[in-house]
Design goal:
Order of helices and strands: EHEHEEEEHHHH
Structural class: alpha+beta
Strand content: 5-15%
CATH class of the largest domain: Alpha Beta
InterPro entries: Glutathione_S-Trfase_N (IPR004045), Thioredoxin-like_sf (IPR036249)
Distance between the termini: 19 Å
Number of helices: 6
Radius of gyration: 18 Å
Organism: Hermanssonia centrifuga
Number of domains: 2
Number of strands: 6
Pfam families: GST_N_2
Oligomer: single chain
Helix content: 25-40%
Protein name: GST N-terminal domain-containing protein
Amino acid sequence: MDASNPIIFYDIASGPPVIPYAPNPWKTRYALNFKGVHYQTVWVELPDVASVRNKLGAAPVRAHKDGSSFYTLPIIKDPSTGDIIGDSFEIALYLDRTYTNAPLLFPPSTIGLQAAFNVQVDAIFTRFVILCAHGLPFNSETAEQSKAAFLWRAGKTDWEDMTVRGDERVKTLEAFKEALGELAKFYRCEDGPFLEGKTRRTRI
């Protein structure tokens, strides 16, 4: 890819100083770095994510409990092809299809397994977001709007309710550990410790 025509990567902005912190955009950032693709980051404030997706024509890929659209990042826009993709897993597949001179992110024979693993990761970390929500690095200028969105999704009214302490935190951590144990079953291979046994794919 021509460095003068980079992929546009939309990531969630933190409070100043702006740094990457959101898990799903981090997946895409790692994938772009791994593939060695030139890209430019556009930082988006959390309250602006829905309008940015709509402006780009990137349909929502998730839904709230009530069935309404849940607008999230990452998104990439590839000027060299005109493609716009708004899901971290689909972005990884796109990069493998389009930028074939770089190492594969997913061996073709494992895509079904990778998709199932991705679904489980998203479900578990969404379920236990309360363990880290209180420490998210919101921008002070938009923090109240961002917190209100988190509270609505969690069915709570007070930001202090997004923190678990004492015995409740111990119980929540135990439940999280148990859920991770279920996720770890993907790695239970007789001939090695990795998702593909002895085959290690990560070279970032």
